[in-house]
Design a protein that fits this description.
This protein is of the alpha/beta class and 302 residues long. 38% of the residues lie in helices and 25% in strands.
């Protein structure tokens, strides 16, 4: 097993471009990864990396060794996974989730999941920014906007619509809009894209297939939809929110939906995981559990 640990350090350092990236995925210190790579180099009698204060690059021998061991290493890892298939799924499950979506929709499922699989330890990262599933060493991710490269599979969990909402206190004494054009008369809690820095605008569609741009009078600008929902709850204005951020508040009556015949399609909430021939048991049961629980979940505006 020592040889596998040394290979882990080498392969993840090569993949991530440094000892720090490998250390984060292995849960050890960069110094420990560096020592492992040095021991591997000593055993092989070749230098695998050129080291500098700024970056880590493979030597010619390192490139050749990486090419030769990557395939056999994956097969060996699969063999270890198959050997443990009959045992109870166990280990640390590293998952990336959007902050509000993860808190509202995934955390409530943890109790049942841990009852089924008590040997699994959730290690969940809550962040609204898309993550690099492979480089970050995640077993899975839930959200949207993750790049689907060759090493990633996506399974849609639920379609998502954007709807116009406001607090009853804000709408008191105001005429509800009958068309998106009338939103210009109302104060807007506008979203700025965290990625591009631009203000988001939405084209709404009704059941007849008509399209109209939704534009409120800008009152405040936030870059987080959960913060927008909380501002709307306080009666600061109208917010155009993805349904996962609005649904529970609409059901409770804390928010009311404006323009009930109009919505914008945002895509889907998806479950992402590495494209491997054989997934670890902990990842496989998590995927099956999430797909089971989200089956039939309605996050649309219907």
């Amino acid at each position: 097993m020592e040889a596998l640990n040394l290979l882990d350090s080498f392969l993840l350092s090569a993949e991530g471009g440094g000892f720090s990236a490998a250390a984060r995925r292995l849960g050890v210190t960069p110094a420990a990864v560096s020592r492992n790579v040095a021991r591997l180099e000593e055993q092989l009698g070749v230098r695998l990396f050129q080291r500098s204060t700024r970056k880590l690059t493979l030597t010619e021998a390192g490139e050749r060794f990486l090419h030769e061991v990557s395939g056999p290493y994956d097969d060996l890892r699969d063999a270890f996974t198959r050997a443990g298939d009959d045992s109870q799924p166990a280990g640390t499950l590293k998952v990336a989730l959007g902050m509000a979506f993860g808190r509202d929709y995934l955390v409530p499922l943890l109790g049942e999941f841990l009852e089924r699989y008590p040997a699994i330890i959730p290690d969940w990262q809550f962040d609204n920014r898309p993550v690099d599933l492979i480089a970050g060493g995640f077993d899975a991710a839930i959200g949207g906007g993750i790049e689907l490269n060759q090493g990633v599979i996506a399974r849609d969990l639920a379609p998502v619509h954007v709807v116009a909402v406001a607090a009853p206190s804000y709408m008191r004494g105001r005429k509800p809009p009958g068309h998106p054009d009338e939103l210009r008369q109302l104060d807007g809690i506008i979203r700025r894209s965290a990625g591009t820095g631009r203000l988001r605008s939405w084209v709404l569609t009704n059941r007849q297939g008509e399209h109209a741009t939704a534009e409120c009078r800008t009152r405040m600008i936030f870059d987080d939809p959960d913060a927008m929902a909380h501002a709307a709850l306080r009666g600061y204005g109208v917010a155009l929110l993805p349904m996962p951020f609005a649904l529970s508040r609409l059901k409770s009556g804390e928010l009311v939906r404006l323009l009930p015949d109009w919505k914008a399609e945002l895509g889907s909430v998806s479950l992402y995981y590495p494209n491997k021939k054989l997934l670890p048991g902990k990842t496989r049961v998590f995927i099956d559990f999430v797909l089971e629980k989200f089956r039939g979940l309605n996050l649309t505006a219907e």
